[in-house]
Amino acid sequence: MTVSINYLGHATMMFRFGEVNILTDPVLSDRVLHLRRRNFSGRAWLSQQPKPDIILLSHLHLDHLHIPSLKRLPRDVPLIVPRGSGRWLGRVLCRPIIELSPGDKYDVDGVTIHVTYAEHGGSLPVISLAQGYLLEGEKLIYFPGDTDVFPQMSELTEKTIDLALIPIWGWGPTLGAGHLDPKSAAEALALLRPKHVIPIHWAAFRPIGPIWEMLSYLHTPGPKFTYYARQMAPETFIHFLEPGQDFTIPD
């Protein structure tokens, strides 16, 4: 079975385990509030993707939860959300909603979705709900959503992770609590020890206005992460994806 990923940017990607398609944190618009997508069109990307079998939502911050994007997707596709958020989301979405907590698992045609802890939060009870996912099929993939590094990362699984998607920054020039920067992302990599890593959650959006293109945070997190990762986890292969690019996990 071929296991691959197609990356739109930030935390939106389609995982393909053979014929099983799993979509994460779909933000498909080219503009979200004061943010503008920098490159590949979300609408164009969606037109090139297969219908997802399930959608994973890591948390309810607006750069991950985008209601117009979810309404654009087929209504019969279930949405997995953090437990405690389903009642609120059910008021605005007409689709099956499955609430899960860290430690739970859910099977989709031979692919097991394990829900994992995430060190993230917010100012309101529902907004503070956050989790990551381990996708286990022919390959094992870790999608953490938004998280800071936490010691238990090394205990997420007894198996070797084939691919980890690791956030290395955000959409603005500064980071709040509960996020990874290039150095802490490398620290997370050292705990996880995956075979391959794709840095995500950086350089996809910027505030409106061309002046933002001149700021270093859109360009330097990738090279900085590579520098730290080669020191802390030299055995892991690093792959940078452009929006719309595929990556097939090697055997």
Describe this structure in words.
With 251 residues, the protein is of the alpha/beta class. 16% of the residues lie in helices and 29% in strands. α4 (182-192) packs parallel to α5. The chain is globular and about 45 Å long. The model has no long low-confidence stretch (mean pLDDT 93).
Task: Kindly list the characteristics that best describe this protein.
globular; seven-stranded mixed β-sheet; alpha/beta; about 250 residues; Metallo-beta-lactamase, Chain A; 5 helices
The total of beta strands comes to: 17
- The CA-CA distance between the termini, in Å, is 10 Å
Strand content: 25-35%
What value does the average pLDDT take? 93
Shape estimate = globular
Secondary structure tally, helices: 5
Largest sheet data: 7 strands, mixed
CATH first level: Alpha Beta
Low-pLDDT runs: none
Series of secondary-structure elements, N-terminal to C-terminal: EEEEEHEHEHEEEEEEHEEHEE
> What strand line-up does the widest sheet have?
8-7-6-3-2-1-17
Q: Architecture, CATH level 2?
A: 4-Layer Sandwich
